[in-house]
Automatic annotation (TrEMBL), chain A:
Belongs to the binding-protein-dependent transport system permease family. This is Multiple sugar transport system permease protein. Its main location: membrane. It is found in: Cell membrane. InterPro entries: BP-dep_ABC_trans_perm, MetI-like, MetI-like_sf. One of its GO terms (cellular component) is plasma membrane. Gene3D superfamilies: MetI-like. Residues 71-262 form the ABC transmembrane type-1 domain. Keywords: Cell membrane, Membrane, Sugar transport, Transmembrane, Transmembrane helix, Transport. GO terms for biological process: transmembrane transport. The keyword Transmembrane helix applies. The chain crosses the membrane at residues 12-31, 75-96, 105-127, 183-205, 211-234, 246-267.
Length: 277, 307
C-alpha cells in the first residue's frame, strides 16, 4: 500500500513538472533569442543557449527606440481600462447578483451575445464613430473601446464573486438603517477585494496585449501601444528578431508580474462563488 | 376594487420607484457603454453587409441587397474556411479542456510549493497572443527552433521540416500554440469549481467503499458539469472568433489550409479592403455562433431541470 502511494506521489510531481516545463519552455526560447548576438542568431539557431550571450538588444531597445513611449502608453491604457472596467463591472455584477428585476435576463443575454461578435466587424463602424469625436489616435479612445469590450466578462466574474458572499451581511446593515448602496460600498466591496484584484489583473492583461484595435485606431508613434510598436520591428527593411524579442520580454514583465500576483485570487474568488453561471 | 384593499403598509410611490430603479442604476453605466461601443457599431456593421463598401473605391457605398450573400453561397474559399473553423475550434477546445482538467486535478491536491507551481502553470495566459504566435512560429522553424528536430528524433516527422509549411500538418501549429495559451483559462475555472466541492462528500464516499474512479464519476463530474458547460460555451465562441495566432503564424496558408472564417474576414477587410463582403461573412459567423450557444444553453437547462 505504501509503495503504491509513493509511486502515486512521484507520478503526481512528475506530471506537474512536465506541465511547468511545457508552460515555460516557449518563454525560455524568447529569452534565449533576445540574448543571442545577431551574428549567431542563425548559426546557433537550435542551440539551447548561445555560446556568447549579450544584452545589447536590450540596451538598444531601451536607449535608441520609441519603445519607452510605447511602454508608457500601454501602461496608461491598460491601467485605466482595468480600473474603469472593475468599477463598472462591480456595480453591474452587484445588480445581477443581488436584485431580481425584469430586465435581468435581457441584460445577461445582451452581455453573452457581445462575446460572440466578430470584432473585425466592429472596426470600421467604431472608427467612423470615434473619428468625428477626435478619439482616434488618442489613448482615451482606446480606453473607451477596451472598457466596453471587457465589461461583459468582468461583470460575470464580479457577479460570481458577489454570489459567494452571504446576503445576511448587508441585510443586517440595512436593518440598522443603511441604504443598500452604503451596505454595498462599506460591507460587501471590502469582502470582495480578492475578486476585485482578480478582475483588475484579468482586464489588465487583456488590454495590455490587444493588437487589432490598437493597430486600427492609432496611427503614428506618439499614441502607439507596445503590441503595435513590436510590429514596427517587422515592417522595417529587415526584421531584427533579437531586438524584437528583447522588446517582447520587456513587455511581458508587467503583464506577468500582475498576473502572478492575482492568479491566486482568481481561483479563490471563483471558488467562493463557484462559476455556477 | 376598494381603496381599503390596498395593504396599509404600502410604501409611498417615490420609495417604490426608487427601489425598482435601483438595479437599473447599478447596471446603467456598463449597459450604456456596451450599447454605445458595441451594439451601435454592430448594427452599423450589419448594415454594411447589405452595402457595397470598398475602402479605396469612392463610388462604393450603395445598398445592394443580398448580393454579398449570393456571392458567399458561391465562395468555395468560404466553405473551406468554415470546415477549417470547425477543425480548429473543435481540436483547440477539446485539447484545452482535457489538459486544463488534468492540470486542475493535479493542482487540487495540496503539496509543498503548490502556489508557485500554480503560478508558473498559469503564466502562458499572460502572454500577449500575437507574441505567443510569433514565438511558436520560431519554435516550429527548423533553422531557429528546436521542435522540428525533436519531432524528427522521436519519429513523428520524416524529416526536420517546418510543419507550418506542410499543407497536411500546418493547422497543428496554431492549434498547439492555442492549446499552450488557453489551458490556464480552463485550469483556473475548473480548479475553482473543484475547490468548491465539499470535502466531506469524498470522505463519506470513501467510507462507503467507493474507489477513486467511482468518486470522480459520481461526485466530481456532476459538481463540475455546470462550470464545464459554461466554460466550453464561452471558449468555443472566443476561439472560433480568434484569428490572432493564425494571422501571425501562417496567415491562412499554405494553400488556405489554415484559413478559418475569422482570419478570412480579416483578409477580406484589411487586405482587399472590402468591408461590405467582410461584414456579410461576419454576420453569417455571428448567426452560427448564436445558434450554437442557444443549443448549449437549452441543453444545459434540460440537464439542470432533470436533477
Amino acid at each position: 500500500m505504501r509503495t503504491r502511494q509513493l509511486a502515486f506521489t512521484v507520478a503526481h510531481r512528475l506530471a506537474i513538472l512536465a506541465y511547468i516545463v511545457f508552460a515555460l519552455f516557449p518563454l525560455f526560447w524568447l529569452l534565449k533569442v533576445s540574448v543571442t548576438p545577431n551574428d549567431l542568431l542563425y548559426s546557433e539557431g537550435v542551440r539551447m543557449w548561445p555560446s556568447r550571450a549579450t544584452l545589447e538588444h536590450y540596451t538598444f531597445v531601451i536607449a535608441h527606440s520609441a519603445f519607452p513611449t510605447f511602454f508608457k502608453n500601454s501602461l496608461i491604457v491598460a491601467g485605466s481600462t482595468a480600473v474603469t472596467v472593475t468599477i463598472l463591472a462591480s456595480l453591474a455584477g452587484y445588480a445581477l447578483s443581488r436584485f431580481r428585476f425584469r430586465a435581468k435576463y435581457w441584460i445577461v443575454a445582451l452581455m453573452l451575445i457581445t462575446q460572440m461578435f466578430p470584432l473585425v466587424m466592429l472596426v470600421a463602424p467604431i472608427f467612423k464613430m470615434l473619428s468625428p469625436l477626435g478619439l482616434t489616435n488618442s489613448l482615451t479612445g482606446l480606453v473607451i473601446v477596451y472598457t466596453a469590450f471587457n465589461v461583459p466578462f468582468a461583470t460575470f466574474l464580479m457577479q460570481s464573486f458577489f454570489d459567494g458572499i452571504p446576503k445576511d451581511l448587508e441585510e443586517a446593515a440595512m436593518i440598522d438603517g443603511a441604504t443598500q448602496f452604503i451596505a454595498f460600498r462599506q460591507i460587501i466591496l471590502p469582502l470582495t477585494l480578492p475578486g476585485i484584484a482578480a478582475t483588475l489583473g484579468f482586464v489588465f492583461t487583456a488590454a495590455w496585449s490587444e493588437l487589432l484595435f490598437a493597430l486600427m485606431l492609432i496611427s503614428g508613434n506618439d499614441a502607439a501601444t507596445f503590441p503595435v510598436g513590436l510590429l514596427t520591428f517587422v515592417s522595417k527593411f529587415s526584421v531584427d528578431f533579437g531586438q524584437m524579442m528583447a522588446a517582447g520580454i520587456l513587455a511581458l514583465i508587467p503583464a506577468c508580474l500582475f498576473f502572478l500576483l492575482i492568479q491566486r485570487y482568481l481561483v479563490q474568488g471563483l471558488t467562493a462563488g463557484a462559476v455556477k453561471g | 376594487m376598494t381603496y381599503a384593499a390596498h395593504p396599509p403598509a404600502t410604501k409611498p410611490f417615490r420609495k417604490r420607484f426608487a427601489d425598482a430603479a435601483e438595479p437599473y442604476l447599478y447596471s446603467a453605466p456598463a449597459l450604456i457603454l456596451i450599447v454605445a461601443v458595441m451594439l451601435v457599431p454592430l448594427v452599423l456593421g450589419i448594415s454594411y453587409a447589405f452595402r457595397d463598401i470598398q475602402l479605396l473605391n469612392p463610388f462604393s457605398g450603395g445598398f445592394i441587397g443580398l448580393d454579398h450573400f449570393r456571392a458567399l453561397g458561391q465562395d468555395q474559399a468560404f466553405f473551406r474556411a468554415l470546415r477549417n473553423t470547425l477543425w480548429w475550434t473543435g481540436a483547440s477546445v477539446f485539447l484545452q479542456f482535457v489538459f486544463g482538467l488534468i492540470l486542475a486535478l493535479l493542482l487540487d491536491k495540496p503539496f509543498a510549493g503548490r502556489g508557485l507551481a500554480q503560478a508558473l502553470c498559469f503564466l502562458p495566459w499572460a502572454v500577449p497572443s500575437f507574441l505567443a504566435g510569433l514565438n511558436w512560429a520560431w519554435l516550429f522553424n527548423p533553422v531557429i527552433g528546436p521542435l522540428p528536430h525533436w519531432m524528427y528524433a522521436f519519429g513523428i516527422l520524416d524529416a526536420p521540416n517546418n510543419i507550418l509549411s506542410d499543407p497536411q500538418l500546418a493547422m497543428w501549429g496554431p492549434i498547439i500554440a492555442n492549446v499552450w495559451w488557453g489551458i490556464p483559462f480552463f485550469a483556473i475555472t475548473l480548479l475553482a469549481a473543484l475547490q468548491a466541492i465539499p470535502r466531506d462528500l469524498y470522505e463519506a464516499a470513501s467510507i462507503d467503499g467507493a474507489g477513486p474512479v467511482q468518486r470522480f464519476v459520481s461526485i466530481t463530474l456532476p459538481f463540475l458539469a455546470p462550470t464545464i458547460a459554461i466554460t466550453i460555451l464561452l471558449r468555443t465562441v472566443w476561439i472560433s472568433n480568434f484569428a490572432d495566432l493564425i494571422v501571425v503564424m501562417t496567415n491562412g496558408g499554405p494553400a488556405d489550409r489554415t484559413q478559418i472564417v475569422a482570419s478570412y474576414i480579416f483578409t477580406q477587410a484589411f487586405k482587399r479592403l472590402d468591408f461590405g463582403y467582410a461584414s456579410a461573412i461576419a454576420l453569417v459567423l455571428l448567426v452560427l455562433l448564436l445558434v450554437y450557444s442557444l443549443l448549449i444553453v437549452l441543453l444545459r437547462q434540460t440537464l439542470l431541470n432533470k436533477d
